[in-house]
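**Archive record**
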Amino acid sequence: MHAMQYELTLPADYDMEIIRRRVASRGHLLDDWQGLGLKAYLVRERGLHGSPVNQYAPFYLWNTGAGMNAFLWGGPFQGIVDDFGRPSVRQWSGLAYEEGGAADSPGRVAVVRRQQVPDGGLLADVRADAARETERLAGEGGVVLAASAVETSRWELIHFSLWGNDTPEADGDLYEVLHMSAPGRDRVPG
């Protein structure tokens, strides 16, 4: 599993309905993308749920590197580049994935939490802790799914949880889910 996210931070007065219309008209393009586990089309709006910014920040879980590369190099990602410029695309190696008790629910909100891997200690313990946190998140009421991943050039952990309700019990940045493409969700490794 590979996790990926890019963030388009937009002006404070940006009309977020433009992003909503974009996702409504184009979101389906990845509903059957080969190698994609899931894509959550995420937005934050300045002043809502504590967000300091307007942001479009889709989050991906890829089953294959080939699918991710096809998306980035000649796939629908070119539309983002054409319309907004080329954003920095962050990628993490997957550590854990769990379906939650609300797995059959559509995702309404997502929480993304980043943390540094502490210096010292065993890296195997870091992975085990991340897997336990993923399992804990997946066990919370209303959770559709949870995942954790690590980016090793900065030694950053990311915890991603998708919720079927509007009141997540998790710390991190809160996003509204506009659409979810999940052609290979049943094949995301646990």
